[in-house]
Amino acid sequence: MSSLHPRPGARDAVVAALVVFLVWSGIAPRSHVTWLAEVFWVIGAIVMWAVWLRRLPCTGIAFTVLVVHSVVLIIGGIYTYAHVPLGAWVQEWMARPRNDYDRFGHFMQGFAPALLWREVFLRNAIVAL
Predict the structure, then answer these.
(1) Fewer Cβ close by (within 10 Å): the C or N end of the chain?
(2) Assign residue 125 a region: left if phi > 0, alpha if psi is -120 to 50, beta otherwise?
(3) What single string gives the DSSP state of each residue in 65-113?
(4) Greatest CA span in the chain, whole angstroms?
(5) Contact of 65 with 115, CB cutoff 8 Å
(6) DSSP string, 26-48
(7) Exposed, middle or buried, 84 (CB in 10 Å: 0-12/13-18/19+)?
(8) Which class for 127: exposed (0-12), middle (13-18), buried (19 or more C-beta within 10 A)?
(9) DSSP code of 55?
(10) Integer Cα distance of 84 and 74 in angstroms
């Protein structure tokens, strides 16, 4: 199989690790309501993976971006975006007035779906490279 399409077993292992991280993140988040609002989309993506997407694999790049986006959402759900420790570290390091983790989250919320739509357009021959 080409490097653009990693082995399905490897993807299954990554999704299983993501499920473990998701479950762990729900044990003691800062706010259960915020956690649920953030990870709702990750839960939906995992259900889609189990039901449909395993038979219709996306490229390795799109899969990786989706996993990273899921991790960003889960971390935002654990701490709430304003209190993510990594964002606080960057805030202090760059002498920023606020924790900008939410900006990274918003970037990912635009970038990941755009990459998925690119795949849909290419796969269905709506556009060509």
Answers:
(1) C
(2) left
(3) HHHHHHHHHHHHHHH-GGG-HHHHHHHHHTT-SS-THHHHHHHHHHHHH
(4) 48
(5) yes
(6) TSS-S-HHHHHHHHHHHHHHHHH
(7) buried
(8) exposed
(9) G
(10) 11
Tell me the residue type at 64.
T
Sign of the Cα pseudo-torsion (30, 106, 13, 124, in order): positive
Q: How far apart are CA 67 and CA 77, in angstroms?
A: 15
The conformation of residue 126, written as its DSSP 8-state character, comes to S
- Please name the residues in contact with 96: beta carbons below 8 A apart, sequence gap of 6 or more: 90
pLDDT at 1: 43
pLDDT of residue 16: 92
Q: Give yes or no for a contact between 21 and 71, defined as CB atoms under 8 angstroms apart.
A: yes
| Spatial contact of 100 and 44, defined as CB atoms under 8 Å apart | no
Give the position of tokens 């473990």. Answer: 20
Kindly state the average pLDDT of the residues 17-41.
94
